[in-house]
Amino acid sequence: MMWQHKVQGQRNLHPPLDKFRMLCGRKKSYFVAAVCIITLTSMVTVSYLRLQRLSHQPKVIQEGSKCRGEIANSTITPLKDNKTFIISPYFDDRESKVTRVIGIVHHEDVKQLYCWFCCQPNGKIYVSNAKIDVHSDRFGFPYGAADIVCLEPENCDPTHVSIHPFAHGNIDQLPRFEIKNRKPEPFSVDFTVCISAMFGNYNNVLQFIQSLEMYKILGAQKVVIYKNNCSHLMEKVLKFYIEEGTVEIIPWPINSHLKVSSRWHFFLDGTDIGYYGQITALNDCIYRNMQRSKFVVLNDADEIILPLKHPNWKTMMSSLQEQNPGTGIFLFENHIFPETVSTHMFNISSWNTVPGVNILQHVHREPDRKDVINPRKMIVDPQKVIQTSVHSVLHAYGDSVNVPMDVALIYHCRKPLQRDLPRESLVRDTALWRYNSSLIMNVNKVLSQTIL
Ligand SMILES: *[C@@H]1O[C@H](CO)[C@@H](O)[C@H](O)[C@H]1NC(C)=O
Ligand SMILES: *[C@@H]1O[C@H](CO)[C@@H](O)[C@H](O)[C@H]1NC(C)=O
Ligand SMILES: *[C@@H]1O[C@H](CO)[C@@H](O)[C@H](O)[C@H]1NC(C)=O
Ligand SMILES: *[C@@H]1O[C@H](CO)[C@@H](O)[C@H](O)[C@H]1NC(C)=O
Ligand SMILES: *[C@@H]1O[C@H](CO)[C@@H](O)[C@H](O)[C@H]1NC(C)=O
């Protein structure tokens, strides 16, 4: 493990210095002097390295304390510096016992943070120097996803942590965050879909319901949505799915804290963070579901990972895992089905009053372009992921594999990317239609119980 912070305090340097005096104090030949200098240098280096490691060890700073700080309940909590935003801490013992806090930080301005652990019942407060790891995929924006990682005190199993820029002060004033994933649990579901950001008065109701019903047909039991904002009609649909037990909403009011861009790349427009903080939401979603879900599916609401050789995700993933032992990351190729090109099939009259796209009518996909690589989205084993980006993982314990196009593709129905193509140049691909009857039946059921 590489802990990169500066050494604090010099007290532990004294014992090697004493040894140096004993060894080198009297004799005066050049040879001995040279040996002494080399010895001294190596001793100092060894203790320096040891100190560097030690400086991250939790230290008791108060005894007989009570944990009084208020428990933070919002998804995004700013610290007093207004440069650090805490999403959630997660227990992670895959390497050593750490608390990994998913957050958003200013990549330059946030240099030092401490985890304050309140250990009950012995009433000791420990402070650990955090390792701040700003994810490399920041795309030029000043703020980015970060892991704030702290070694936990031994024999404590803290349930809560506070994050603070100082190793001193009064803990009573600091919000406390629950450390999730503390206790191992059996998986409750096979597949959870993470939708990283719903924003901009989202009102593509028909396509959303169709996507959700497709996820369920393919094997998802849960869909987690990081919701910034959506239309009133959409709220009604979400309420239905929450009551059904399929959807979990994570409020995502990122624009109350930072100037968000709706682009993924920084554009010198004074914005702070890309695409509604999508990357942070995805990382949070993986950790949030690490113990609950065997697989996590990372895609947008207009994307469906469509198996072509198997009836559903479960049989597809069993087969892919068998063929790729040790792989935790499965990457699927994105294909655009433009919403501007329709067929007359499946023009269902009762759906015409519902806002949004009817995906069954869009079965023409754009051909691959020379020199353009189709982006990929993922199904991952969350326990194998350390840090994720949107189209790949940044750090993982297992390998990644590109799933070939004959096994599955991403059906992505949206505005065209190759705008000027005539219809004849598109590839007719009706893979989605295999599911037409159950999809139509399920969508009708939801519509009749929500908005029709
Ligand atoms: C969070 O919820 C808990 C329990 O519901 C409550 O005691 C606490 O005051 C809340 N914290 C804040 C900051 O609202
Ligand atoms: C942080 O932001 C809040 C609200 O945006 C503001 O009231 C406060 O003064 C800011 N604090 C600092 C230290 O900049
Ligand atoms: C949702 O966001 C849009 C712009 O992104 C804004 O115009 C609208 O007022 C917001 N709606 C709500 C209910 O917050
Ligand atoms: C669907 O049917 C309606 C009439 O029922 C018609 O106005 C519309 O153009 C049709 N759309 C497509 C894409 O076939
Ligand atoms: C719709 O699905 C049924 C079976 O569920 C199938 O027999 C039929 O061919 C499908 N329709 C189209 C147009 O593919």
TrEMBL record:
Keywords attached to this entry: Glycosyltransferase, Membrane, Transferase, Transmembrane, Transmembrane helix
Topology in the lipid bilayer: Single-pass membrane protein
EC number(s) stated in the UniProt entry for this protein: 2.4.1.-
Top-level taxonomic group: Eukaryota
Protein family: Belongs to the glycosyltransferase 92 family.
Cellular-component GO terms for this entry: cytoplasm; membrane
Compartment list: Membrane
Record's protein name: Glycosyltransferase family 92 protein
Major localization listed first in the record, in broad terms: membrane
GO molecular function, one term: glycosyltransferase activity
PANTHER family reported in the protein's UniProt record: GLYCOSYLTRANSFERASE FAMILY 92 PROTEIN (PTHR21461)
Enzyme class, first EC level, given as a word: transferase
The keyword Cytoplasm belongs to this UniProt entry's keyword annotation: no
Membrane-spanning residues: 29-49
